[in-house]
Write a structure and sequence with these properties.
The chain is rod-shaped, with a radius of gyration of 40 Å. The strands form 2 sheets. A 5-stranded mixed sheet has the order 1-2-3-5-7, with helices on both faces. Strands 4-6 form a two-stranded parallel ribbon. It is of the alpha/beta class. Helix 6 packs parallel to helix 8 and helix 12 runs antiparallel to helix 13. It folds into 2 domains: 50-323, Tetratricopeptide repeat domain (Serine Threonine Protein Phosphatase 5, Tetratricopeptide repeat, Alpha Horseshoe); 331-453, Trna Endonuclease, Chain: A, domain 1. It has 21 helices and 7 strands. It has helices spanning 3-53, 58-70, 74-87, 96-109, 113-126, 131-143, 147-160, 165-177, 181-194, 199-211, 215-225, 232-245, 249-260, 267-283, 287-300, 307-319, 321-328, 331-345, 392-405, 420-426, 436-453, and strands spanning 350-359, 363-371, 376-384, 389-390, 409-414, 417-418, 431-434.
């Protein structure tokens, strides 16, 4: 029990000491703040007094300029250093290099790039080995697209500070602009190691990999950037284009569609993503999805590339599945459709196909023995997949083939049209030319006719 009063006294004294220390600390801090405030007030008072007597007083301008520069009050610093720059050389108290450097820095902070360029250029003429001057001037030369000059200045800045990420970054981007991709990669990688959050540099690094034919590395980086809200749409466009070039259409579609899910996409990137997505869908014969993108583009920009032509062409295909097969399907599906046409071309006829040949997926020739109630003969059919005008040479080739196989008649079908020369060539020969309109009618009815021709099951 005797220890309780002692413990209470100790606790009481400890609390008193803590309160006193806290109070003294605050008093000292307030004193320092007060001294700073008094020091700032004194500078302002003294400088303004001198300037009221002489608005171009160097010491007054220097004092105010230094104060505002330290406080990063860039508009006020700029005004004071502009006056000092104009007076430089006329007063021994003005350090011409320093006032030009600070004038340029303040101008750059305010976005006055021309004034900043002038100030840094003057400063460099006075002192060429200053890191801050060389870096900033190099950066401004990059913005002006003077890439060779930017590289010279940034190389010098790099020798003074080899680990300065902005210098490495700007140097790498400058080298990329003049297509020195391998050198650019080296500096951009170093910059990213120091500042890994720099997504723009990461994107440029991927472009470098693409330019030096290291497409797998490029795709990995673009894939990493696809979700990024800023660089994502561009990365998706680039990645999808690479996959398109490699005939990886499903992957390309995935890239483009991820890009289109982003918000606030730049209009030119948005329209190109839709156009290339449509192109990829067409390669996959997904015409409906392609038309959706093409019509979106047409609503925004009717004159964009060949969008109107593609819509006109593929709307018809989308409505006619057999026409799609005839023009776009793999060779096996195309030949199967052609067989169906041959087998149903003549009504109440017995038809036996004896030979099929395909020429580089451009056309198919089918030889058939046809027996009708009125006549029997060997007939050669040629199905041409080429759109547009079919010339005389293809028809001549077809006629030569007819003679080789001793066919009595030839039927040449095309989605396009036959030239006048081709038509004249067939006038005295047993060759029928069937153009788009009639072929489309055949394609529209061939399935129904084929179904009727099937034998009835008992």
């Amino acid at each position: 029990m005797s220890m309780i009063p002692i413990l209470a006294a100790v606790i009481f004294l400890t609390v008193i000491v803590i309160i006193m220390i806290t109070f003294l600390g605050r008093s000292k801090g307030g004193g320092r703040g007060g001294k700073r405030a008094k020091g700032r007030d004194a500078i302002l008072k003294n400088a303004n007094k001198r300037l009221s007597q002489n608005p171009r007083d160097p010491e007054g301008l220097l004092a105010l300029g230094d104060l505002y520069y330290q406080e990063e009050a860039w508009d006020k610093a700029y005004t004071n250093y502009l006056a000092l720059v104009e007076m430089a050389g006329s007063s021994p108290t003005i350090n011409e290099f320093e006032v030009n450097l600070r004038y340029a820095t303040a101008a750059m902070k305010l976005g006055f790039t021309n004034e900043a360029y002038k100030g840094f250029s003057t400063a460099r003429s006075l002192k060429s080995d200053n890191f801050e001057v060389n870096y900033n001037l190099g950066n401004l030369e990059f913005q002006r697209k003077n890439y060779e000059r930017a590289i010279q200045l940034l190389q010098q800045a790099r020798t003074q500070d080899p680990e300065h990420a902005p210098t490495l970054r700007c140097l790498g981007h400058s080298l990329f602009k003049i297509k020195k991709y391998k050198e650019a990669m080296s500096f951009i990688r170093k910059a990213i190691d120091i500042a890994p959050e720099d997504k723009e540099s990461l994107y440029t690094l991927a472009e470098c990999y693409f330019e030096v034919n290291q497409t797998e590395q490029a795709l990995r980086i673009f894939g990493h950037l696809r979700p990024d809200p800023v660089m994502g749409p561009n990365a998706c466009l680039f990645s999808g284009t690479i996959n398109m070039n490699q005939h990886q259409y499903e992957k390309a579609i995935q890239d483009f569609e991820i890009g289109l899910r982003h918000q606030n996409i730049k209009p030119d990137i948005l329209i190109e993503l839709k156009y290339r997505a449509a192109t990829a869908y067409l390669k996959q014969q997904e015409i409906g999805k392609a038309l959706g993108h093409l019509k979106d583009i047409q609503a925004e920009n009717p004159a964009y590339r060949d969008v109107s032509v593609l819509i006109g062409k593929y709307q018809e295909l989308n409505a006619n599945q057999n026409l799609q097969i005839f023009l776009m399907a793999p060779s096996a599906d195309f030949v199967a459709l052609c067989r169906k046409i041959v087998m149903t071309y003549y009504t109440r006829a017995k038809i036996k196909i004896t030979n099929i040949s395909v020429n580089k997926n451009e056309w198919a020739d089918i030889l058939a023995e046809v027996d009708t109630p009125k006549w029997s003969d060997v007939v050669m059919f040629r199905f041409i997949r080429t759109q547009g005008s079919i010339g005389e040479l293809i028809v001549r080739d077809f006629h030569s083939h007819l003679k080789e196989v001793k066919a009595g008649k030839g039927i040449c079908m095309a989605v396009g049209t036959f030239s006048d020369e081709a038509k004249r060539y067939t006038e005295a020969r047993l060759i029928d030319l069937i153009e788009k309109e009639k072929l489309s009618a055949i394609l529209n009815t061939v399935d129904a006719r084929s179904a009727r021709a099937l034998p009835t099951k008992k």
